Amino acid sequence: MNSFLNPYSTIKFFGDLPDGSVINSCELTNKNGMQLKVITYGATITSLKIPLKNDKFLDVVLGFDTMEAYLNSFQLKGAPYFGATVGRYAGRINNSTFSLNGKSIDLNSNNNGHSLHGGNIGFSQKQWKIKNVNEGENPSITLSYFSPDGEENYPGDLSIDLTYTLSEENELIIEYVATTSEDTIINLTHHSYFNLDGHNSTILEQDLSINSNKILETNEHTIPTGQFLNLENNPFNFNQAKKCPQTIDTTFVLNDGEEIAATLFSPKNNLKMLVQTNQPAVHIYVGGNCHNEIKGKENTDYHHLSGICFETQNFPDAPNQDHFPNAVLRKNEVYFHKTRYKFQN
Prior knowledge:
By secondary structure, the protein is mainly β. The chain is built from 1 helix and 28 strands. The chain has a 9-stranded antiparallel β-sheet, with no helix packed on it. A hairpin with a 5-residue loop joins strand 2 and strand 3. The longest helix has 7 residues. The two termini are 30 Å apart.
């Protein structure tokens, strides 16, 4: 059933952009009662409710109740990007510049002279279009965005389809497909802050594991130096599960051949989240602080330990590091990124 054309569709008005454009919200529910809410602003996940025992449901992602709050959050010192789709290039690009086909390209700077998460107005702040909604088993929504040549100074018309699926195994599956009119660079990721004790809790009592033996070394601006740090005897070695760290903003190189990239476990709710991806890295970030300037969902004051991000992606600054995985999308090629967040209790 195509519920986008169905008068009983779960698509609802969410709010207006300053230019009068309408932002809608779509709600998906699988047969187990797992529920996803997505808005067309930034293709952003605003809520993800997981069924627990005793017919209870737990919202495991941070977010806001209003369009105004999402808009204002990008004016905060250190915008949180709650639940957003990040692009055209996730992470930082050193000095906002890179070379492609022998030509130097200067991007817009928005982070200490560097480009972060796509520049001044990345995909997280764009209006996406609802392309398709499927109900029934494994319900899904596909959103699309067209990024014109020269947007934030990136080359090429980039066309993206993003599909969120709720599987009957209680997985949130995210699939990105993109094509370009000319050679460009791309690195898309999802920026939900997860908290398996609930979005209004702290993550400190949850157990984190990451299948990685090395991380990217970075400088004082969190730009990769090009070197790798071995995690043996390193406090960021999470091959064995341990409590979430209070401070982390680190790219973990995923071990080849491992099916699971990372896991998060809440002893309180006996709830586990498994992260699987076809990407070479996961960037782990703990945060969510809104500095008491904007209230989160249910009037929550989000703080620096409110959530943890699992940003599955290519390496930051890969266009400037020849030995990093390829970040170039050629004309006539297809970019495909798939990540699963699987919930078990």
